[in-house]
Amino acid sequence: MRSWIARRTLRAFARRYGYDVSYLEMMLNCSPAAFFKFAPLMKAAAHREAVPIDASFAAKIVGALAEDCGPCTQLVVDMALEASMAKDQIEAVLRRDPRAMNDATMLGFKFADAVRRCSLFSRNRSGV
Questions:
Q1: By the 8 A CB rule, do 60 and 76 touch?
Q2: Which of 45, 101, 97, 51 is nearest to 76 (CA)?
Q3: Angle at CA 110, nearest 5°, toward 108 and 124?
Q4: Contacts of 18 (CB under 8 A, 6+ apart)
Q5: pLDDT tens per residue, range 24-81
Q6: Phi and psi dihedrals of 48, rounded to 5?
Q7: pTM value?
């Protein structure tokens, strides 16, 4: 029953955002236990409580860009638009143009970019 609900939820998500969820469906089919351990992370990633929408999505866009995942970046952009983040702010993040960002967008952008740079520095030092 739980897997059936998960499949319906994944298909609805795929339709809503035009996003390929086949990797999640494969996880659900091959290891339901793994899927249901992973699923709460998606909900946790959406939690922002007091974080402004612009800051939250700016950080998510920077993260998606850092991983060089075009479909992931498009998904985050679509979600940002759905959450009412202004197009000009999304475009400023995609262009990496802090001068065009409002304070909240710049906060999320700078935070995520600092984490990205630190991660790259750590990878380079460890030889990974």
A1: yes
A2: 45
A3: 120
A4: 78
A5: 999 999 999 999 999 999 888 888 889 999 999 999 999 999 998 899 999 999 999 9
A6: -135, -10
A7: 0.84
